[in-house]
Structure formats: structure tokens, C-alpha cells
Amino acid sequence: MRNKLLLSISLISMLSFSGAYAADTEKKTATECGDVTIAEMNWKSASLTAHIDKFILTNGYDCKVEMVPGGTEAIGTSMVEKGEPDIAPELWANAMKEAIDKGVAEKRLRYAGKSLSDGGEEGFWVPKYMVDENPKMATIEGVIENAKLFTHPEDKSKSAFYGCPAGWNCEISSGHLFKALKLGDANFDLVDPGSAAGLDGSIARAFERKIPWFGYYWAPTAILGKYEMVKVDFGSGIDKEEFLNCTSSKDCKDPKVTMYPPSLVTTVTTEGFAIRAPEAFDYLSKRSFTNADMNVVLAWMEENQADGEVAMEHYLEENEAAWTAWVSEDVATKVKKALKAL
Q: Signal peptide span per the entry (predicted)?
């Protein structure tokens, strides 16, 4: 009898321990997201997306989020080589496709989904009012023939081509295409605008004064939503292999002319994050914006001088139908509650 009693007590203890362990395991699994680092890239749409991800992951998935600032090349390289940060919400993959694909193949990185469902657009642009006056200005031949119209802001003897801000990955491609198109031979000088704000300001000033402007830009952006621009046709079509293997490569010695291919704008995570937080990863795989929707938010940001964090709150409050489709009903409830508490 004594032995049976001891056996019963042992079984009860084991069952209690097993139940407690299972409950504890279940609890850990539900909050496995843990510490998460998110890249906040240095342009508005990427900053907005990063803050949306931070708010939803923090309040909906119990993640402890830290933001990491940086540009495309620096963040992409760090993710491939160091596994940090965990998430790049808006990575223009064409710029580093070979390196990112290698990271995915080696199971260090994982593509979550398209950050911009329509893809990104890059090119060299002129104001539409120039093309309305002279349709040939929509071609690179027309631009070169009329190079003297594009007055340099500091050197009146030169013509100005506004390039991508220094430190951005598009600085490489725009510089190579400047060389391939032989714009230097046409007396153009590649002007570094210093920042996105500097580039935007140069366009805004041109439109205010209705003067010529020629340079690099991309979409979706508030600027191209606000000001009518025309993408200059190089007459070359798109050579995707040339762009990937040379135009976008720092080591390219002899770039050829090609139009920019549509950019895959994707969310990339580390493999470790995808494995330990599958529900959060699933959210990232569904979170996507159309260019039209993003342009609207970016225009609002510009009009209200709002940063990514302020725009995040505006977006989530005004677009509930869109973002609740990315998450479960339980997560949506948590995020709504957190929004009301702001």
C-alpha cells in the first residue's frame, strides 16, 4: 500500500511538472519574438515602413524592438555578413541582388515579401513642362543637344545633372550611367545634392521658377506625386544583366547604357528571425503597399512635415482595413488598443 501511495504521488508530481512545463513552453513560444532590430533606412517610405513594423511587432507580437539607422549597402552588407539587423523593411533588392541572393541560398537571409507590390521605379527625369515645350527633351539626345539650358548652381560654364545623394547605393548606378551616356563630354557636371532634402529642394525650386532641371529620381515618392516629371528615354531599352552585373556594381569599369529595370522592393529578414518568430515573419510576408497608396502617405508627410513615427500613427489610424488584413484578429485587437493609448 505504501509503495502504491508513493507511486501515485510520483505520478501526480510528474503530471503537474509536465503540465507546468507545457504551459511554460507554450508561453515562451507565444513570446519567442524577443529582441528584434529593424533597419530604418534614410528615406521617407522606408522610415515609415520601419515604424509601422516596429509598432505592430511591439504591440501585436510582444517583440522588443530597436531601430538601426543606415543606407541600403551598409544594412544589406551587415545582414549578410553579421546577421544584423533582423529586418530590412524596404530593401531595393536590385542594388544588392547578388549578395542578398547568396545570403538566402546560404540560409542566412530570407525574403519575406514585396514591400512595394508594384515595385520601385528609377530613372533620369526632366520636368513635364520642358517636354510640353519640346517633345525631344523626353530623350537623352534632346537633353544633350540642349545641355546649356541646365544651368549649374555654382558654375555657370557647366550644365547640371543632379545625381543620387552620396552614400546611397543609387549613387553607384547613377554615376555609372552618367559615364556611359558620356554626359561629361556634353559639359554636364554630376552635382551631389548632399541629401534627399537637397535633391527634393532642387526640384521644387525648378518648378517654382519653371526652369530646366535634369537628374536622378525614383518612385514612389511625394515629389513625383506632387510635380509632373517625365522619365528620359535613353533609347537603349533595359539590359537587366548589364544593370545587375555592372551598372549597380561598385567595381564596374566599363558601364554600358541601359534603362533602369523595375526594382524589386522587398522585405528581407535574417533566417534566425524567421525561424524563431514565424508569426511575426508571416506578418512581414503580407505587409505590402501599392505605389499609389504610398505616394498619398508620403505627400501627407511632406505637407505636415511629419517623420516616420508620426506618419505611422496617421497611416494606422486612417488605413485600418488595409493593415488589419496583414495580421490575425487577436493581433489587430492588440494594435488597436495600443493606438488608442497614444
A: 1-22
In contact, 166 and 192? CB cutoff 8 Å = yes
Where do we find the cell 518648378?
A: 207
Q: What are phi and psi of 230, to 5 degrees?
A: -120, 130
Give residue for cell 494594435: 335
Give the integer Cα–Cα distance in Å for 3 and 84. 57
236 found inside a domain: yes
User: How many independent structural domains does the chain possess?
Assistant: 2
Would 220 be classed as within a structural domain? yes
Of 53-62, 222-231, 254-263, least confident by mean pLDDT is 222-231
Same-domain check for residues 215 and 200:
yes
Residue pair 319/333 in contact by the 8 Å Cβ criterion: no
3-state DSSP call for residue 327?
coil
pLDDT digits (tens, 9 = 90+) for 47-66: 999 999 999 999 999 999 99
Range of the domain at 160: 121-247
- Compute the mean pLDDT over every residue in the chain, rounded to the nearest whole number: 90
Q: Can you give the CATH number for the domain in which 309 is found?
A: 3.40.190.10
